[in-house]
Amino acid sequence: MIEMTNISKVYQMGEKKVEALREVSMKIEPGEFIAIMGPSGSGKSTLLAIMGCLEIPTSGRYLFDKKDVSNLTDDELSLLRNEKIGFVFQAFHLLPRFSALENVELPLIYKKVAKDEREERAIACLKQVGLEHRIKHAPTQLSGGEQQRVAIARALVNSPRIILADEPTGNLDSTSAQEVMDILSLLNQDKKITIAVVTHNPLIAERAKKVYHLKDGQLVNEAK
Amino acid sequence: MRLSDYLYLAKKDLTNYRLRSSLIILCICVGILSSTLNLYHTSKRAEELISSLENLGGQMISIWVQDKEIQLEDLFFLSSYFPYTSYEVSYWQDIRSFRKTKISVSIIATVPEYQQVHSVKIKEGRFISSGDINHRRKVCVVNTSVASILKIGVGKKIRIGEDELRVIGLSKEEGMSGRVIIPLSISNEIFESDSRNLEVVILTSGNPKAVKKEIERMLKKRFSDKKGKTRQGFLFERGFIVSIAEGLLETIKNQRLTNRMIVLGIWVVTLILAGGGIINLIMLSVRQRYKEIGVMRAYGAKKEEIFHLFLLEGILLSVYGLLLAGAIGASYVCLFGGCKFLIFLRELLWSSIVCIGIGICGYFPARLAAGISPSEAIRNA
Ligand SMILES: Nc1ncnc2c1ncn2[C@@H]1O[C@H](COP(=O)(O)OP(=O)(O)O)[C@@H](O)[C@H]1O
Ligand SMILES: [Mg+2]
To answer: What pTM value is reported for the model?
Structure first.
């Protein structure tokens, strides 16, 4: 599914260079559920952004589905993200003026799916996360847990190969966090969707089959 | 992304900035409307003048008499060659009504043919007749602007110097300044000064250039006989100016040119205001939606799709402005403007050039939006 070899990422901050990742190598098999832990600033988000083809690594090789991503154009990367990757963020990142349904429809717009089919598929996904009664609600009318579930429905709507979640429970109370993690676990078990979660919370990490620890941009050890 | 979805997303954003969007639309509308109506009015007038020339089935050829020794009577022979020949003496002078209202008008002493040659429309009463000429009647035809300023009508009298003239007709001449037409035969009694213009206007259906040549040949022949050889060259070069009615066409053209300059000015102002407004609005929108753009890109929006979306927002505003201007302009033209819809549409099309400029203004902020890095936008949210 994902194969990273000696991935490094250097950010140029004026004169200063920040090494966000150093020689990270990892492999994620299809259907795996992995967690990435580490102190803040250790490069977790950077790693996830590279996995999600939002960032280009400074060096190293990244194969997504056995395809070398560095050869793809910006448009091809967009297409890859659209069709194969679902993102879930700590701050939900729902579009504020759009209803829950419209938010979930968004990825399908870029896939040129017609309005009717879009709604149908979005409603199905909202049902999967237990929000069929909140379809017309605006994000501000939803609780944090509900917003994150809408975000998961949005990540799901294009039937992705992998869902990348960057601290998905970071802004949630423990009950909502459990609900969200239950949904992700279920998707992994039932739909065999590969899932990578960044988290600080060891309880959350426990659900993963593999946990990677990052420190100063380096993989420390693989536990579990 | 489908076009319908572009529209859907763009409209959603614009409604978020309702006040700003409305102001920009209004600005574009006012700019386009004023330039369109400006162009419309001159074009309509020009077209009417040209078509009235064409309706007569001919072209006007003017002979301006420059030589003080030549009288209009010396040119009467032209009538036997050209049936539509009008002899005119014109002069600027003050006239008064009996209420002592005084205005300065152009007085034209002429013959009945004047009416056909210049296609004068009579609103009330009649034009100068050959009887008026033969009996040297002290009558006149005034145009509507004179009648309304002096508050007079057919049957009333006006004063020119010490003479009293009875108004026998009201002529309809749109947009003309004051004009009083009197019989040619009384011009010597009425006019006080020598500095008057003598002009013969011939309406011909022939090839204007050939007719002009013919007239020049005739004049040359006749006046070299009459005035003697010594002055012939002088006479002919200084004696007459024969011109095809380009005078009129030229003034129309000049009028259109100054009009175009005004319109250009309106365009520039509109472009600066609306274009600046659109840059400002889209910049604001891009800044406020920085995070959203990142999310859209993460979920598969291509750079170009983001670019087109923001570009479309600017284009939508100018299209709305254009439609609004079109609707208001069309109702105006329909109600007060003479209903020349084709001319209106043509000028509206011209004015919509501004929209292209405004669209270009949207280009820069849209490029900016397209260049946003998704990972940075999401991280910095
Ligand atoms: N765009 C950027 N420019 C400069 N430095 C960056 C940028 N993105 C991340 N960094 C730096 O890279 C390091 C890793 O960041 P990040 O991956 O966000 O860590 P984490 O998610 O583990 O907290 C941090 O020191 C951060 O300051
Ligand atoms: Mg982070």
So the answer is: 0.72
